[in-house]
Amino acid sequence: MLSYIWPIALVVFANVIYNVATKSTPSETNAFLSLAVTYSVAAVCSFVLYLLQGGHQKLSIELSKINWTSIVLGISIVALEFGYINVYRAGWKINTASLVANISLACILIFVGLFLYHESITIKQAVGIGVCLVGLILISK
Question: What is the pTM assigned to this prediction?
């Protein structure tokens, strides 16, 4: 059970820190320079954790396993971070911005799962989408 829960707990914890840090980014700071520093720190941390993980092959062999997904993920992460920085700079409150974004994302991913991965949509999910849409309307009013 713990192996099922700890990753979600980590995502929630990291997202709390992420949103507080993003909202706290000074508005006079260039967003892209801030992201460059952010991702430099992330790159160093990731590489150190890669080395500490052990059991890995030569770096060249590991690099040969990387495909287009790392590039697309990098681009999407920069877009995501830049979007969140500007969401907060536009005046969104921390207690609603992430909620609106994540509810919208969850609803869209149901359809991505349906069309791209051939997952099914249950009646519960359809009702959940409706409830989420009503919630988004209530939150945005």
Answer: 0.85
The C-alpha atoms of residue 92 and residue 72 are separated, in whole angstroms, by: 27
Give the Cα separation of 42 and 21 in Å (integer).
14
* Cα atoms in the 13 Å half-sphere on the side-chain side of 115: 4
Six token digits for residue 50: 């890669």
Under a CB-based contact definition with an 8 Å cutoff, are residues 70 and 64 in contact? no
In whole angstroms, give the CA distance from residue 119 to residue 115.
Answer: 8
pLDDT in tens, 76-104: 999 999 999 999 999 999 999 999 999 99
Provide the 3-class DSSP secondary structure of residue 7: helix
For 51, the 3-state DSSP assignment is helix
